[in-house]
Structures are given as structure tokens and as C-alpha cells.
Design a protein that fits this description.
By secondary structure, this protein is α+β, with helices and mostly antiparallel strands. It has two domains: 227 residues, Methanol Dehydrogenase, Chain A, CATH 2.140.10; 254 residues, Alpha/Beta hydrolase fold, catalytic domain (Rossmann fold, 3-Layer(aba) Sandwich), CATH 3.40.50. Helices cover 16% and strands 31% of the residues. It contains nine helices and 28 strands. The strands form seven sheets. The chain has an eight-stranded mixed β-sheet with strand order 21-22-24-23-25-26-27-28, with helices on both faces. It is globular, with a radius of gyration of 25 Å. It starts with a strand and ends in a 6-residue tail after the last helix.
């Protein structure tokens, strides 16, 4: 990267960043003897520049257990390594035609820890091999596996493994993917999951469970209830102090006018959505609508949480100013709707997810109170990419777009993320082209504000410059704002955040005017 502001002459800033199609940074594992400083390198089969090693732990005093993923992240090998000799052997293998998620997806509390049970004779693992994200108990030698969470539902994350009671606590939401609840289940492969969270508290629950599995800090929120916490006993989930319970402290915000709904598109796809309606909403009038999008496999924008439906870049109150705000959850997001929902985006990022959002918008705009001449969309990072794709691919729907720090060409982002969801470019270059916003820049018809920090070491500034060149080539008029040397967050330096907020707000008000008509 280039630092063009901190000295008289520009400086080159080296960044070790393997982009799509380039070999991963090679890694190896060594064990050092602290008595003599001798290092034994583990002899793991496979080219280090064509594999990843995402997890490593001790299996016993002389054995490491390691997970290895191939370059495409479709084959997972679990490997034992002898710490003295460096020899290794694969004892458990799994394959997926799309990708295999690593442990940080389903155990964010401690993604490096190996979950041994039965006094080290077995371990807990998560797989989507039957189409759902399920818990399995696998024998130490990998020859026997027991499905623990049988049924058509996904687990979200493991919260605690209680060896004393032979139970696992995990979060899931079998009925509503926008919410989460705590469940527990016996590790026998015969029992059904038992709901631990209060059944009458509909929304999103989270738990931090004590090491002995007897107590937890329990938090709760939903779209109309600010987050509130309590301490509870387990497994009964009873508050330790009634005066400090969620039931006593919970307060519903009376000013919330948000609708959670589902939309079925003309393609037969049903998506979740929220609609944040203006203050004093009158369904006989027409309002401008602002869509907040992300659309990538890394996150969803439709969760039943308080405050998720507010625009953090808008200076003022959008509801009071007369805007409708909308969030839509497309296929490909990590929602708890089964592997098919999440993985159908494989090699189609920028196509399937964008069409889902566009077709859901088209259906939603049939409601008479939406002003189809005032439809704006905005997003940051992957959401910036989605904003550009929506504005360029569906100009008949979206009239104004504000895209921040977007990946404009999928070949310009890092390999480990992009190749996981898109495959290797030498195998399917056309998919990369079809999924990149820059491919459709010539179609721009509406209003575009593009924003990027030149010091962005996540989504590099070359994404911005490549897009600008393409828009210039086709004489497409747009507004562009570079924030010199700012990173992906665009927050460094005095006045930066306020400037960004003012820029965003003024552009939106000018090109998608607020208020009912």
C-alpha cells in the first residue's frame, strides 16, 4: 500500500496478503524441548502452500491433534502427530462439495480448544454432513461416531460441555432463524434436546456458562427490548436473585414500530426481513425506503435484536424524518436454515444472494406505502459489494446507492475467504467475473456515492480505483470520497467519523428525500 500523507515523499507499506489465486502463506508445526531448545517439526503430508492448519491442540503429553484443510477447504483431515518423532497419521476425514466450516464458526468462546469427553476416549465435533449443523461424538481413534442432535435443525454454537452430567449446552433456534435459545442434550445419541431458555421470552438469548456448568450469565434481547442480563442456575435457568432478574429489569421500548416478516419471491425463495416504519406511519401515504444490506456468508442483517434496525451513519432520526428502513436475509448467509440455504451460494456469490435481495425488494415494493421512485440501498465491506451489485444489476429497482469499502472485483480480495465460497479462479474464472460488481458498472443509471479509505489493509484501495476507471470508461457520473490513509473502519484521525456521517446523511437526503407524500 502507499502512505501518501505522513511525509514529503510517499512511502510503500508492505502488506503480506495472499490474494485470490495466490498460494496461502505456508505454515508448519514444531514442538520445542524446553530443556535443550531442540525443535521437532511435525511431518504432515501435503504442500504447506496448498493446505491450511486451522486448529492444533495436545491430545496427550506426547501427541498433538491437528486439523488440516485442503486449499479448496472441502476436505478436512484430523491428524495425530508424535511430538517426539514428528510422524503423523490421519484418523478422521470429511469432505463437502462446497466448503467445511472451521471450529470458530460453532465454538466462538474457545475455538482453539479440543473438546475431549469420556475421559479422553472421545471428542465432540460438528458437521453438516447430513444437511444440518449437528453435534457428533467421535471416538478417539475416529472409527465410531454418534449423532447427538438428530433432527432438521442447526446448532448455532456450543456453550458448555458438562462431563459431570454428560450433557452439552448449545444455542439453536429450530422454529425461527432470527432468534436463538439455549438447549441441553445428553451425550448418548438417544436423547432429545431440552429447551433451557424461558419459552415465553421470544428473541435472542446468550449465555456465559461457568466451568462447573451450574451457573450462567444470561442475556436477552429482541427488536423491542434493550439487552438485559441476569445470573441463573443451571439446568433450571432460575434467576439467582429475583430482584435482579430479567423479568424484573426488562423494559419494552414503546417507540418501536418494527415489523418482522417473511417474503416469498417469484423464484419461490422465502426470506426473513424486518421493516422499520416511520414515526406516525400512515399506510395511505408513500414513503422513501432505505435498504441496509450485507449479503455475504460471514453474517446476517436480520436478527431479532434491539437496535439492529437503526442506521448508525445517519445524523438524526430516520424514523422521525419519514424513512422506512428494511433489512433482508438472502440465501448464503449463516442463518440457521440448513446447509443447503448457506451453501447454495458456492461459486455464485454476487449472483444468487443479489437476486434474492432484489426479488424480495421487488415483492416488498408492491405494498402501496413504498415510494418506488425513492429506493436507496447502502452497505459496508461485503455490504458495499452488494450495494454496487444491486445498483448495477437491478437499476430498475434501486435508484440510489451508498457503497463503502467494497470488494469491486472478487479477484482482489484475500484467498482464504473468497476461495472458500467461490472455488479456485483457475477452475471457474467465469463465476468470479459474473459475481464482481465491476462487471456491471456500465449499467449504472441511478445515484452512486462510493467511499473508501486509501489505507484499507482488508479491502485494498485498488478495488476503488479499478471501479472508478470502469465508471469513467462508460461516462458514468457518480460521487467519490477517499479518506486518506484510513483503514477499513474509516475512523482514524480527527473529524473523520463526523465527516463520514455528514457526507452520508447529506447525500441520502438529497438523492432519496425523506418524508411522506
Amino acid at each position: 500500500m502507499l502512505n501518501t500523507t505522513d511525509s514529503v515523499y510517499s512511502k510503500v507499506i508492505p502488506v503480506e496478503y495472499p490474494k485470490v489465486g495466490q498460494p496461502p502463506s505456508p505454515v508448519r508445526i514444531g514442538v520445542i524441548d524446553i530443556n535443550n531448545d531442540a525443535i521437532t517439526w511435525m511431518n504432515i503430508e501435503g504442500d504447506p502452500q496448498q493446505h491450511y492448519l486451522p486448529i492444533m491442540e495436545w491430545a496427550d503429553a506426547n501427541t498433538l491433534v491437528v486439523q488440516q484443510l485442503d486449499r479448496k477447504q472441502q476436505t478436512s483431515n484430523l491428524i495425530y502427530c508424535n511430538a517426539t518423532t514428528g510422524s503423523s497419521r490421519v484418523f478422521y476425514t470429511e469432505h463437502d462439495n462446497a466448503w467445511i466450516d472451521i471450529k470458530s464458526r460453532w465454538n466462538d468462546d474457545d475455538p482453539t480448544k479440543w473438546d475431549w469427553v469420556d475421559d479422553g476416549k472421545s471428542f465432540i465435533w460438528v458437521s453438516e454432513k447430513d444437511g444440518w449443523r449437528h453435534l457428533y461424538k467421535i471416538s478417539r481413534d475416529g472409527t465410531k461416531e454418534t449423532l447427538l442432535t438428530n433432527g432438521q435443525y442447526d446448532i448455532a454454537t456450543i456453550k458448555s460441555i458438562d462431563g459431570a452430567t454428560d450433557e452439552i449446552y448449545f444455542t439453536a433456534s429450530p422454529e425461527n432463524a432470527t432468534q436463538q435459545y439455549l438447549y441441553r442434550i445428553k451425550m448418548d445419541g438417544k436423547s432429545n434436546a431440552i429447551l433451557v431458555s424461558p419459552a415465553d421470552l421470544k428473541g435472542t438469548h446468550d449465555y456465559s456458562i461457568s466451568p462447573n456448568g451450574k451457573f450462567a450469565e444470561h442475556s436477552f434481547t429482541n427488536y423491542k427490548t434493550p439487552e438485559v442480563k441476569e445470573w441463573v442456575s443451571l439446568p433450571d435457568s432460575k434467576p439467582l436473585e429475583k430482584s435482579k432478574s430479567i423479568a424484573n429489569k426488562m423494559r419494552v421500548d414503546p417507540n418501536i414500530n418494527i415489523e418482522y416478516t417473511t417474503i416469498t419471491t417469484e423464484d419461490g425463495v422465502t426470506v426473513d426481513a424486518w421493516i422499520n416504519k416511520p414515526t406516525d406511519f400512515d399506510p395511505t401515504k408513500k414513503y422513501p425506503v432505505v435498504f441496509y444490506v450485507y449479503g455475504e456468508p460471514a453474517a446476517s442483517t436480520v436478527e431479532d435484536r434491539y437496535g439492529n434496525q437503526e442506521n448508525f451513519l445517519y445524523e438524526g432520526d430516520m424514523s422521525s424524518d419519514g424513512y422506512i428502513q428494511v433489512g433482508i436475509d438472502n440465501r448464503g448467509t449463516p442463518s440457521l436454515k440448513g446447509a443447503a440455504w448457506r451453501k447454495c451460494i458456492y461459486k455464485k456469490d454476487g449472483i444468487i444472494n443479489i437476486r434474492d435481495m432484489a426479488m424480495a425488494t421487488k415483492k416488498l415494493l408492491e405494498r402501496p406505502y413504498f415510494d418506488t421512485s425513492r429506493v436507496a440501498v447502502w452497505g459496508w465491506s461485503g455490504g458495499g459489494s452488494s450495494t454496487l451489485n444491486l445498483l448495477f444489476q437491478y437499476p430498475e429497482i434501486f435508484k440510489t446507492g451508498i457503497a463503502i469499502a467494497a470488494v469491486t472485483n472478487e479477484l482482489f480480495y484475500d484467498n482464504i475467504y473468497t476461495e472458500r465460497y467461490m472455488g479456485l479462479p483457475e477452475d471457474n474464472m467465469d463465476d468470479y467475473i459474473q459475481g464482481s460488481p465491476i462487471t456491471y458498472a456500465r449499467n449504472l443509471q441511478g445515484n452512486l456515492l462510493y467511499i473508501h479509505g486509501s489505507g484499507d489493509d482488508n479491502v485494498h484501495f485498488d478495488n476503488a480505483e479499478a471501479l472508478l476507471n470502469e465508471l469513467i470508461k462508460y461516462n458514468k457520473q457518480f460521487q467519490f470520497m477517499e479518506y486518506p490513509n484510513r483503514t477499513h473502519n474509516i475512523s482514524e484521525g480527527p473529524g473523520t467519523v463526523q465527516h463520514l456521517v455528514t457526507l452520508y446523511t447529506n447525500y441520502l437526503r438529497k438523492n432519496c428525500p425523506p418524508g411522506a407524500r
